[in-house]
Amino acid sequence: MANELYRILHTKLSRSIFLIILLIPCIEVVQLLLVKFQSGHELYPPFSFFLSGSSRGHMTQALLLWFLPLFLLLLGSDNVIQDYQTGSQNIFISKYGKKKYFSYKLATSFLVSFSAMFLSLLLNFILVSIFFMGGKNTKEYSLPDNLLFTLSIEHPYFAIMLFTLTACLLSGFAGLLGASFSLFFQDRKYSYSAAFFVWFFLVIRDDSLMYLFQPFAEYGFDTLLPVLATALIVFISIPTLIYFYEVKFNDG
Questions:
Q1: Mean pLDDT by 10 residues, the chain (252 residues)
Q2: 190 contacts: CB under 8 Å, gap ≥ 6
Q3: Which long-range contacts (CB under 8 A, 24 or more apart) does 229-238 make?
Q4: What is the pLDDT of residue 144?
Q5: What pLDDT, on a 0 to 100 scale, did the predictor assign at position 89?
Q6: Alpha carbon distance 187, 101 (integer Å)
Q7: CA 42/CA 242 separation, integer angstroms
Q8: How high is the pLDDT of residue 138?
Q9: CA-to-CA distance for 91 and 87, rounded, in angstroms?
Q10: How far apart are CA 141 and CA 164, in angstroms?
Q11: pLDDT at residue 140, rounded to an integer
Q12: Whether the Cβ atoms of residue 68 and residue 199 lie closer than 8 Å to each other
């Protein structure tokens, strides 16, 4: 993990992508500040949080979340391709073994991706808590048949904590997915295409993956749990199959 962080911090592209991941939710804060100044109304911090999608058009959410695997590949999940191109992959495998090398790359891709999203959302939460500290929870309605929505409105800070954890876990899996395809294809063109295809397929389904990033929406446990189950099956099975194929069967 320390070696991967060192590579990210000392690579201009990785630093730039990390800053973009941090700054996209900050653009949302600026948009909401303009709304606050124009309307004269105080906004409530949990409802101003990035995942809550309070800005008009939700463009910042679409930009970051729809293309998340590509950002994470550029951040560092594809560095196995660089290892392959420079020949250092063979050195690492000879020294540590293929199983340990692949396990290390997949694990660090998950952790780096999880951490990048966590830091981005943490920064956003700090900013909305500062700029909108005077806002009050004015939402008093509930959906009697939707326990998740009712609990979220009654306990909004708990809701954003829950969805933040979910968003970070899904980001970790997005990075893991990109790293898996990078290990398999060893080519950026195919790795990026495959990772984006799988992610975007889950996004555009009727029961979209994006539901899992949206607190205070009308979707209840009956909708979100099957979406989560489908996502986990995809995000766990693909890396697992690639890992066992590369470790057990691919001697090339």
A1: 70 90 94 86 89 84 95 87 83 86 91 95 96 77 81 91 97 96 93 96 96 92 96 97 86 56
A2: 181
A3: 230/202, 231/170, 231/173, 231/202, 232/173, 234/198, 234/202, 235/170, 235/173, 235/174, 235/176, 235/177, 236/173, 238/177, 238/180, 238/181, 238/198
A4: 75
A5: 82
A6: 18
A7: 50
A8: 67
A9: 7
A10: 23
A11: 64
A12: yes
Closest Cα to residue 166, out of 92, 240, 203, 114? 114
**Could you tell me the two tokens for 249?**
């069967």
Nearest to 171 by CA among 6, 25, 57, 11: 25
Q: Supply the pTM of this predicted model.
A: 0.92
Residue keyed to tokens 């397929």: 201
Query: What gap in Å lies between CA 25 and CA 52, rounded to an integer?
Result: 11
Structure tokens at 217: 């929406």
Please, are residues 198 and 234 in contact by the beta-carbon 8 Å criterion? yes
